[in-house]
Write a structure and sequence with these properties.
Elements (H helix, E strand, L loop, with lengths): L4 E4 L6 E2 L13 E3 L2 E3 L5 E4 L3 H10 L3 E6 L4 H10 L8 E4 L4 H12 L6 E5 L2 H8 L4 E4 L6 H5 L5
Parallel strand pairs: 1-6, 1-8, 6-7, 8-9
Antiparallel strand pairs: 2-5, 3-4, 4-5
InterPro entries: HAD-like_sf, HAD_sf, HAD_SF_ppase_IIIC, MDP_1_eu_arc
Protein name: Magnesium-dependent phosphatase-1
GO molecular function, one term: acid phosphatase activity
Length: about 160
C-alpha cells in the first residue's frame, strides 16, 4: 500500500523532552552547542531515526503532517523550528483537541481518504481511536524507530 499522507505525533514519537511533554517545559527555548534546551536546561532530543524517516518520506513524494494535542502549540512550533524539522511538514494540526478532530481536518485539507494515511503515535488511546477511522496506525512505544516505517512501506 502506498500511503499519500504520513502523520506523526510529537511528544515521545518525534522527540523526548526530558521525560515530559513539551508543554511541561519552561521557555524560552534556545540552541546551545547543537542541543535544544529550555530555560531549565531540559534537553529536547529528536529520536535518532526521525531525520532519516522524514527525508526518506519527503524524497518519495509522500506528504507529511503533525497531529499533536499539546496545550502549547506555539512552543511545539518553536521547537520544530529550532530542531530544523518543521519544513518537512505540509500540514500541522497542533492544538489541544481529540486526534479525531486532527484527522478530520487533515482529511478535509488534503482530500485524502483515511485509508491513504499512516499515523505514528506513542499513546495507545490515540492509536485505537484513530485506527477506528480506517487510518493505518503504528503504536510507537519507545520513540520512533526505522523499523516502524520499514514495516509499513518499502523503504
Amino acid at each position: 500500500m502506498r500511503y499519500k499522507l504520513v502523520v506523526f505525533d510529537l511528544d515521545f514519537t518525534v522527540w523526548d523532552s526530558g521525560g515530559v511533554w513539551c508543554d511541561c517545559l519552561l521557555p524560552p527555548f534556545r540552541k546551545h552547542e547543537g542541543r535544544v534546551l529550555d530555560a531549565e536546561d531540559s534537553h529536547v532530543r529528536v529520536y535518532e531515526d526521525i531525520p532519516w524517516a522524514l527525508e526518506t518520506l519527503a524524497d518519495s513524494g509522500v506528504e507529511l503532517a503533525i497531529a499533536s494535542r499539546t496545550s502549547q502549540p506555539n512552543w511545539a512550533r518553536e521547537l520544530l523550528d529550532l530542531l530544523k524539522l518543521r519544513h518537512f511538514f505540509e500540514y500541522e494540526e497542533i492544538y489541544p483537541s481529540s486526534k479525531l478532530r486532527h484527522f478530520a481536518e487533515l482529511k478535509s485539507n488534503t482530500g485524502y481518504d483515511y485509508s491513504e494515511m499512516l499515523f505514528f503515535d506513542d499513546e495507545l488511546r490515540n492509536v485505537e481511536e484513530v485506527g477506528e477511522l480506517g487510518v493505518r496506525v503504528v503504536h510507537v512505544r519507545n520513540g520512533f524507530q526505522r523499523d516502524h516505517l520499514a514495516s509499513e512501506m518499502d523503504v
